[in-house]
Amino acid sequence: MNNTKFSSMAVAGALCAFAALPSTAADVQVYGVIDTSLSFVSSDADVAGHDRVNTFSMENAKEFGSRFGLRGSEDLGNGYKVGFVLESGFKSDDGQFDQTGKLFGREAHVDLTGPFGKVSAGVLPLFGSTLGADGLFRAIDPLFANYTKAFGSSCISASSWTRVDNAISYVTPTFAGLTGYAMYSFKSSGLTTSTEGRGGESDRYASVAARYKAGAVEAIVVADTTMYGTYRTGAAASKDDGWTVTVGGNYTFDGGVRLLAFTQFFGDQELPAFRGGVGTDGIMAVTGGKGYGFVDGYGVSLGVNVPALGGVAKASIGYRDMENKSDVDFKRVIAALGYDYAISKRTAVYAMTGWSQEKVETATMEAKPNGYEFTAGIVHRF
After folding, report:
1. Which of 291, 199, 192, 180 is CA-nearest to residue 242?
2. Which one, of 293, 294, 277, lies nearest residue 358 by Cα?
3. For 314-351, what is each residue's pLDDT tens digit?
4. Which whole-number Å values give the CA distances from 281 to 149, 228, 260, in the listed order?
5. Residues paired with residue 102 on neighbouring β-strands, in sequence order
6. Helices (H), 1-155
């Protein structure tokens, strides 16, 4: 029996088992999101011998990751509660599992909450992401273009991870609008080989963060570090640990107009080649197939959300400037527009378009890989 069939049977069995639980056992909910879109992407490497590439395809999850899951809780009394989340990602365009085929690769954790705050352990989304209950980047991301290739907040940041395995986190109670966060991963991935193209099985991860929310103002700061595993050799090795510091927030005016902004500083941060998006072909050509590697630099973003015609119009601009250990300079500019419209409480349609250009400069060569993307899709929640 192959792994895919086994995983499918395991999911079906888990859903049936939880559905059969008596209501007194725990408060258990089955939930999910399906996001499917049509996307046109055009990319130009700006390097001799590399033609412009145009693709038109059905895509999974341009705005939100498709997933299904189980979550539940049990009241222990005296203000204490135990809960859990088991969340599986899948690709709505072809039905395959996402997150390298893991059964519950998006989230798998148990939580204890009480007057002291919340402690969670397992597979956890990062504070420096838009994922899960504690993803703080929701406060600063104007488009939620999480899986696009030409634009989105990931195009101007250097955050390599979105979730980690073997992790424990703590969230404080909120005092006067201020909440504190801390996380540590003993081993960033449980896989027996290198993980998701982002580092190694023995890499460790740590993060601290804070969020302030009062009235129309929301502000966040997230600092994290990736402690690279000692197994790394050659180009994958780094004597220094990677780090990022992100500061940002939003302000909502009367009428619902929201301004969002952030800046991120980073150093010795490993950035995988696919993060080049529409510029990947040109970046790989200029760097001799090495890609970004370990980078130092910063990124800035400014965005706005405007209620319009019953939906929300969105816009963002961004800039990133960084240099890798081989003294290759990367300077990227992006601009994007989007529109979301809810056709019911659980279903929405969206359209987004954006452009980016990355100037790549070595001692002997320079190119400006660029491209644009149009995407339109539908999101349904259950």
Report:
1. 199
2. 277
3. 999 999 999 999 999 999 999 999 999 999 999 999 99
4. 12, 27, 31
5. none
6. 3-19
CB 167 within 8 A of CB 122: yes
Per DSSP, the three-state class of 277 is: helix
> What does the block give as tokens for 208?
């601290």
CA atoms in the 13 A half-sphere facing the CB of 245:
3
pTM confidence score: 0.89
Asked if residues 138 and 185 have their Cβ atoms less than 8 Å apart, the reply is no
Q: How far apart are CA 299 and CA 322, in angstroms?
A: 8
Q: Quote the tokens at residue 95.
A: 């039905």
The structure tokens 């049977």 sit at: 9
**Which token pair is 248?**
């940002």
Which amino acid is it at 305? N
Residues, the chain, total? 382
Amino acid making up residue 111 = D
Fold of 26-381: Porin (2.40.160)
Distance, in Å, from the CA atom of 231 to the CA atom of 332, rounded to the nearest integer, reads: 32
Closest residue by Cα to residue 354 from 308, 315, 320: 315
Q: What pLDDT, on the 0 to 100 scale, is given for residue 149?
A: 85
Burial of 40 (0-12, 13-18, 19+ CB in 10 A): middle
Classify the C-alpha dihedral 178-179-184-188 as positive or negative.
Answer: negative
Residues 301 and 153 sit within 8 Å (Cβ to Cβ): yes
Q: Give the closest residue to 299 by CA, choosing from 342, 353, 247.
A: 247
Question: What is the per-residue pLDDT across 186-217, written as a single tens digit (0 to 9) for each?
Answer: 887 655 444 433 445 568 999 999 999 999 99
Integer Cα distance of 67 and 31 in angstroms = 8
Q: What angle do CA 242, 243, 248 make, to 5 degrees?
A: 155
